[in-house]
Amino acid sequence: MRQVPVLAALGVLMLALGGGVQAQEIQKYWVYCIDGKTSVEMWDLEQMKVRRGSNVCQLYEDTSVSGATDWMNDNFPSGTCRCRR
């Protein structure tokens, strides 16, 4: 029964050192129409409007850059787009 106190002590030590179980945030990638051209970015719409101005609209969201890029190329092969107003 010596294992239980050792495991308990190890668990307390891990928590004290910040090694507890933490949820990992999932990275997201968005496809935007920016001034008539498509682009894959890692910033949300609010951040994009601050960075690029008001002529930005979100077209798609994915958890991988390759998924977002594939979607953009499949749906906007010319690279041109238009935001609805």
Comma- or semicolon-separated keywords:
85 residues; three-stranded antiparallel β-sheet; alpha+beta; single chain; flat
Structure description:
It is a single chain. The chain is of the alpha+beta class and about 80 residues long. It has one domain (about 25-85). Helix content is about 40%, strand content about 20%. The protein is built from three helices and three strands. It has helices spanning about 5-15, 45-50, 65-75; strands at about 30-35, 35-40, 55-60. The protein has a three-stranded antiparallel beta sheet, with helices on both faces. It is flat and about 40 Å long.
Contiguous uncertain segments of 5+ residues:
none
* Shape verdict: flat
- Category by helix and strand content: alpha+beta
* Helix coverage percent: 25-40%
* Percentage beta strand: 15-25%
Secondary-structure element pattern, one letter each: HEEHEH
For the termini, the CA-CA separation is 69 Å
Number of helices: 3
Q: What is the mean predicted local confidence, pLDDT?
A: 83
Radius of gyration: 22 Å
The largest sheet, given as strand count, sense and whether it forms a barrel, is:
3 strands, antiparallel
- Counting DSSP E segments of at least 2 residues, the number of strands comes to 3
- Main-sheet strand order equals 2-1-3
Number of domains: 1
Short description, anyone?
39% of the residues lie in helices and 21% in strands.
